[in-house]
C-alpha cells in the first residue's frame, strides 16, 4: 500500500509525521517555481496552495493546517481547502510557549495521523538535522553557496518526503571556496521569488542566515515530550520580543554586515518591520514580494543600492 502523503502548510514537526508511518509534503515548496497567479487573494502563498489543493493539482491524502502560530491567512485558506473534501487537521502552537499545551497538540496530531508506528524516525531525523547544521555552518564560512544551502535548508520542513534520498542529496554537495564579502541576513518569511539567493549572490551579497529555514533545522527531539519542549522555541509562533532576542544573538554570531527583511504582500508579518528596524542595530533593507517568479528588476536595483551602501561602510 502506498505511504500516505500529508500536506502541511507551515512547520509541523516532521519527526512526528514520519514516525506515524506517513510522509509530509510542504505545500509551500512548489509555489516559487509555480508561476501561478490566483484571482482572489490576500497573500499569494496561501491562495496558491489553497487553489492547487482544491483543483487537485497538489494531491494529498490529508492536510495539516497550522492555524495558530505563524500565519493568520492559512486559517481561512486552510478551511477552504478542507471544504473541498480533504480530511484536515488544524494544529496550534502556544503563543506563551507552554510545552504542556504543545504536547497535547502533538498527541492530537499523532491520533489524526494514525499513531506512532516507527519511533526510530525521531533519531533518524535528528541525525539529518545535524547534517543540516553543518551545511549551514559551511555556507557561513564560504564553503557552500547561499543558494545551494537555501535549497536544502528550506526542504527540511518535509525532508523532501524521503529521508534516505534527502540524506544522499546532502552528501552529494560539493564544497566550494567562496569569498564571503557583504555578509547578509535574510529575515522574515522566505522570498516568493525562486531565484532570490542567486540574484543576491550575483550582486555580491552573501546570505549567511535564512531566518525561517534555520527554524526547520534547529528543533527536534526523540519523543513527543522532547519535541513539545523543543518546538516551543519556534520563534515565528512566539511573541516578537522572543524572536528579536533570538535574532540578535544569531546576527552577532554570524557577524552580519546588514539585514534584508523580506515581507510578503498582505502578510501580517509586514507590520513587524518598524519594530525590527528599531531593535536590530544593522543597516536594513525592506523589500516586498507578491507573486511567484523571477526577482523583479526594481528589487534587483534596490539590492544593488544596498550592496553599494554596505561597500561604503
Ligand atoms: S507570507 Fe505571511 S500570510 Fe503568507 S503564508 Fe507566510 S506567514 Fe502566512
The H-and-E topology, N to C, reads as EHEHEHEHHHHEHEHHHEHEH
Average of per-residue pLDDT values: 96
Binned, the helix content reads 40-55%
Question: What's the number of helices?
Answer: 13
Could you say which small molecules are bound to this protein? iron/sulfur cluster
Report strand %.
5-15%
Q: What fold name goes in the CATH topology slot of the largest domain? A: Rossmann fold
How many structural units, i.e. domains?
Answer: 2
Question: How would you briefly describe this protein structure?
Answer:
The chain is α/β, with parallel strands linked by helices. It has helices at about 15-20, 45-55, 75-85, 100-110, 120-140, 145-155, 165-170, 195-200, 210-220, 225-230, 240-255, 275-280, 295-310, and strands spanning about 5-10, 25, 60-70, 90, 185-190, 205-210, 260-265, 285-290. The protein has two domains: about 5-110, Rossmann fold (3-Layer(aba) Sandwich), CATH 3.40.50.11890; about 120-310, Rossmann fold (3-Layer(aba) Sandwich), CATH 3.40.50.
Task: Explain the overall architecture.
The chain is of the alpha/beta class and 313 residues long. It folds into two domains: 108 residues, Rossmann fold (3-Layer(aba) Sandwich), CATH 3.40.50.11890; 193 residues, Rossmann fold (3-Layer(aba) Sandwich). 45% of the residues lie in helices and 14% in strands. The chain contains 13 helices and eight strands. The chain has a four-stranded parallel beta sheet with strand order 2-1-3-4, sandwiched between helices. It has a four-stranded parallel beta sheet with strand order 6-5-7-8. Helix 4 crosses helix 10. The longest helix is centred in the middle third of the chain and has 21 residues. It is globular. It starts with a strand and ends with a helix. The model has no long low-confidence stretch (mean pLDDT 96). The structure holds iron/sulfur cluster. Iron/sulfur cluster binds next to helix 2 and helix 3.
Amino acid at each position: 500500500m502506498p505511504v500516505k502523503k500529508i500536506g502541511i502548510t507551515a512547520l509541523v514537526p516532521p519527526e512526528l509525521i514520519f514516525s506515524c508511518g506517513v510522509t509530509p509534503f510542504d505545500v509551500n515548496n512548489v509555489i516559487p517555481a509555480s508561476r501561478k497567479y490566483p484571482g482572489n487573494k490576500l497573500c499569494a502563498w496561501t491562495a496558491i496552495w489553497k487553489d492547487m489543493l482544491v483543483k487537485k493539482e497538489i494531491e494529498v491524502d490529508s492536510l495539516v493546517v497550522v492555524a495558530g502560530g505563524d500565519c493568520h491567512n492559512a486559517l481561512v485558506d486552510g478551511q477552504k481547502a478542507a471544504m473541498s473534501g480533504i480530511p484536515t487537521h488544524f494544529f496550534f502552537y502556544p503563543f506563551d510557549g507552554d510545552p504542556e499545551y504543545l504536547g497535547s497538540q502533538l498527541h492530537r496530531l499523532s491520533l489524526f495521523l494514525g499513531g506512532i508506528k516507527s519511533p526510530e524516525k525521531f533519531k533518524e531525523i535528528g541525525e539529518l538535522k545535524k547534517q543540516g547544521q553543518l551545511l549551514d555552518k559551511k555556507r557561513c564560512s564560504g564553503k557552500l553557496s547561499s543558494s545551494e544551502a537555501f535549497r536544502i535548508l528550506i526542504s527540511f520542513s518535509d525532508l523532501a518526503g524521503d529521508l534516505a534520498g534527502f540524506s544522499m542529496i546532502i552528501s552529494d554537495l560539493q564544497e566550494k571556496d567562496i569569498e564571503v564579502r557583504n555578509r547578509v541576513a535574510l529575515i522574515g518569511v522566505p522570498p516568493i521569488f525562486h531565484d532570490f539567493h542567486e540574484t543576491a549572490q550575483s550582486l555580491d551579497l552573501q546570505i549567511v542566515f535564512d531566518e525561517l529555514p534555520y527554524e526547520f533545522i534547529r528543533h527536534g527531539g526523540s519523543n513527543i515530550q522532547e519535541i513539545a519542549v523543543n518546538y516551543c522555541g519556534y520563534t515565528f509562533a512566539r511573541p516578537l520580543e522572543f524572536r528579536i532576542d533570538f535574532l540578535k544573538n544569531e546576527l552577532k554570531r554570524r557577524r552580519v554586515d546588514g539585514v534584508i527583511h523580506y515581507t510578503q504582500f498582505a502578510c501580517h508579518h509586514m507590520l513587524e518591520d518598524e519594530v525590527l528596524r528599531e531593535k536590530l542595530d544593522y543597516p536594513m533593507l525592506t523589500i516586498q514580494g507578491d507573486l511567484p517568479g523571477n526577482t523583479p528588476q526594481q528589487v534587483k536595483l534596490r539590492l544593488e543600492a544596498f550592496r553599494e551602501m554596505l561597500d561604503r561602510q
